[in-house]
Amino acid sequence: MAGNALNTMAALRCPHGGTVTIASANARVAAGGAPLARSSDTFTITGCPFQIPVGPAMVPSPCVRVQWIMPDLRDKTNGSLGLSQGSAGLCLAATQLPQGPVGVVGTQAKASSV
User: Fold this and answer.
1) Dihedral sign (CA 55, 56, 57, 61)
2) What is the average per-residue pLDDT within 95-109?
3) Are 19 and 45 spatial neighbours (Cβ–Cβ below 8 Å)?
4) How far, in Å, CA of 111 to CA of 14, rounded?
């Protein structure tokens, strides 16, 4: 595992300061009292203030979700690749355009069966 494991309580942010919420169906393996996050889970971003210039105006283009491009290849959780502090993910706009890497702010170290 490349760094500490990510669980559903891990603190993740988009490059513009938006907050990532993790929704997981994993109910079998936990770390720090919360289910471990998997690359197949849903990662929703809220509060991203990013805007792009279009002519003289600024148009909102907030990050809305995370797509993992490099999960933790050594960790499988319930048949899906797990995630750790060293995993790489991209924040995407609603148009599916990449807007920068997800930032991992806080993680959990120990995993256990629930």
Assistant:
1) positive
2) 86
3) yes
4) 25
